[in-house]
Specification:
about 110 residues; alpha/beta; D-Maltodextrin-Binding Protein, domain 2; three-stranded parallel β-sheet; elongated
Length: about 110
Amino acid sequence: MDEAALSVLRRLDTGTELSGLVRVTAGRVLAENFLIDRLSGFHERYPAIDIELIGEASVVSLARRKGDIALRFGSPKNSELLARHLGRIAFVLYASPTYRDSLDRKGTP
């Protein structure tokens, strides 16, 4: 991804406008609840790039252009794909006080 980003910057320096379709595939929750809200800034900066956001967790073939970028929780196994760690995500479990207290007493619900 570093090389791709540098390539983009080199193109911008030469005055060539970036354009075309980029398919981004991510799990539905990540796509709908995180990415959509954050893509407007990208669109303002690169209006000629069309982003197709595919919200599904199934494995897609990047080689067959079913996606250009795949965002997943974890690294691909047995793959020749280039993977980069982008960040951390935290999950929190919520429960009513009654249910939580039942877990504390029994160890299970």
